[in-house]
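User: Could you go from structure to sequence for me? I need the amino acid at each position, not a summary. Structure tokens:
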């Protein structure tokens, strides 16, 4: 009986959360469609199809996907220059590239994204979500000019936003029977309706009335010229989509202490975009804001995303008039809360407690995410993190020296010998001052790459030029195979040497 009640509770939570997410997605989908300069229905169809397919087949239950701003800002240049049909063709190719990414099983590499990059990504997107809401505080004239709302309309909107936020934060203290976000939207909407309060609504963004999406092959020439146009856009969109999706997947994994399947999610995202491109949608990826609404509501099943999709198509087919009456203030309030809950406030306490370079990487990724591009921010963060890692490990290479009973000088090497540490490695030895026999003991060191082998080569040449014999101890036999200049100049103790392997093409 308890199990039945638990299952019923989970179903209720996922259905109500799906409804909440769908309501929050409508203005987002419309806004992103307008950014890309396509019709609102193009954004809504994408939200419906991408959400449905990824929820059923994806690798991260509870994650919500749909049309996103990160993709829209790339699409607009293509649409303006070549038209919407080229956008549909690009979305199809974007999907194929994402499927290839999954087939190659590259999703696992998202686990290699450093923690500071993840924090920067999350905090940057939280700021982006927060700032994006202020676009709704503007009036757009017929000539396209914009002006900030003021006076009573501004006061009304701020009051309704404050009311929504208050309900979202306070209602869970009284009851959790209904998601507080849904309650906030419903209460403010009813208040505006019954008291005839004049304020901006979803309908002010555009009409969402329409029919079912229908099959539509992109009307573009099937030739090399078309490929040259769409492939660069498809590659960028596929990259941005996968980065945002897989980083969001990682975030939900951390929040729920579960493990998603990045390759499966990449496959589902690719398939969803292929279908979307053939059915008049603008494509999409994971939406961190809507995913946070879902997760915070406790909806971690595939059902929530499926319900979201079906509510979206229900709105389009049957309830557009009612949905268009929802005040934007209620949805802005929801997204303000999402931004606050997404932001990792704990990172502010890390200043002075973690290495400065980690703080720098996090701030860099966050800033670039806000002012430029998500994909650029992540790539830049990973590169900087790698360079910092290499620099720090390069500094750890060192030696301890001693003279044995035969009068041989022994260098006990410590640290990792690789491309970044070879400069320091060369300075550790004094061939001119050393005795005739020198031992380098690699027991506490690791030879990591071909640059390290080259450095050992060069060192052997230096000692031979000084008329001295170099002995290598605890060096892998594989390393000996790729020592070119040092052959005949060194002696390697193979009996004591470890069996780790150096990565080099010469070893097959």
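Assistant: Here is the amino acid at each position, in order:
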């Amino acid at each position: 009986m308890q199990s039945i009640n638990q299952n019923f509770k989970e179903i209720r939570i996922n259905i109500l959360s799906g409804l909440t997410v769908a309501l929050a997605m409508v203005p987002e989908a419309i806004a992103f469609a307008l950014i890309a300069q396509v019709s609102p229905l193009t954004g809504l169809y994408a939200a419906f199809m991408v959400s449905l397919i990824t929820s059923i087949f994806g690798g991260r239950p509870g994650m919500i996907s749909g049309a996103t701003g990160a993709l829209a800002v790339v699409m607009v240049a293509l649409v303006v220059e070549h038209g919407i049909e080229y956008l549909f063709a690009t979305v199809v190719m974007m999907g194929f590239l994402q499927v290839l990414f999954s087939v190659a099983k590259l999703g696992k590499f998202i686990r290699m994204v450093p923690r500071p990059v993840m924090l920067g990504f999350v905090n940057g997107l939280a700021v982006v979500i927060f700032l994006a809401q202020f676009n709704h505080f503007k009036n757009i004239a017929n000539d396209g000019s914009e002006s900030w709302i003021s006076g009573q309309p501004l006061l009304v909107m701020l009051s309704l936003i404050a009311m929504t936020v208050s309900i979202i934060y306070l209602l869970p203290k009284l009851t959790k029977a209904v998601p507080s976000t849904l309650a906030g939207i419903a209460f403010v909407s009813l208040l505006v309706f019954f008291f005839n309060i004049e304020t901006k609504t979803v309908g002010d963004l555009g009409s969402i009335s329409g029919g079912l999406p229908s099959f539509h092959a992109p009307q573009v020439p099937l030739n090399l010229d078309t490929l040259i146009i769409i492939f660069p856009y498809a590659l960028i969109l596929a990259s941005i989509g996968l980065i945002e999706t897989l980083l969001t997947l990682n975030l939900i994994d951390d929040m729920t202490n579960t493990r998603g399947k990045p390759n499966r999610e990449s496959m589902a995202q690719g398939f969803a975009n292929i279908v979307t491109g053939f059915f008049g949608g603008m494509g999409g990826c994971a939406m961190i804001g809507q995913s946070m609404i879902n997760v915070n509501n406790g909806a971690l099943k595939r059902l929530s995303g499926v319900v979201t999709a079906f509510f979206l198509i229900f709105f389009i087919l049957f309830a557009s008039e009612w949905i268009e009456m929802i005040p934007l203030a209620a949805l802005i309030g929801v997204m303000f809360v999402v931004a606050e809950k997404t932001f990792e406030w704990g990172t502010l306490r890390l200043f002075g407690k973690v290495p400065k370079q980690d703080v720098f990487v996090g701030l860099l990724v966050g800033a670039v995410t806000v002012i430029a591009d998500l994909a650029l921010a992540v790539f830049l963060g990973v590169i900087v993190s790698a360079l910092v890692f290499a620099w720090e490990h390069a500094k750890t290479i060192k030696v301890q020296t001693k003279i044995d009973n035969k009068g041989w000088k022994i260098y006990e090497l410590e640290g990792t010998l690789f491309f970044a540490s070879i400069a320091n490695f060369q300075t550790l030895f004094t061939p001119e001052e050393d005795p005739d026999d020198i031992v380098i003991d690699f027991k506490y060191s690791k030879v990591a790459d071909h640059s390290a082998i080259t450095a050992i080569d060069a060192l052997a040449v230096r000692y031979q030029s000084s008329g001295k014999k170099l002995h290598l101890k605890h060096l892998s036999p594989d390393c000996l195979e790729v020592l070119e200049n040092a052959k005949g100049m060194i002696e390697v103790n193979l009996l004591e040497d470890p069996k780790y392997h150096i990565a080099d093409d010469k070893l097959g």
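One structural detail worth keeping in mind: Residues 497-508 have pLDDT under 50 and may be disordered.
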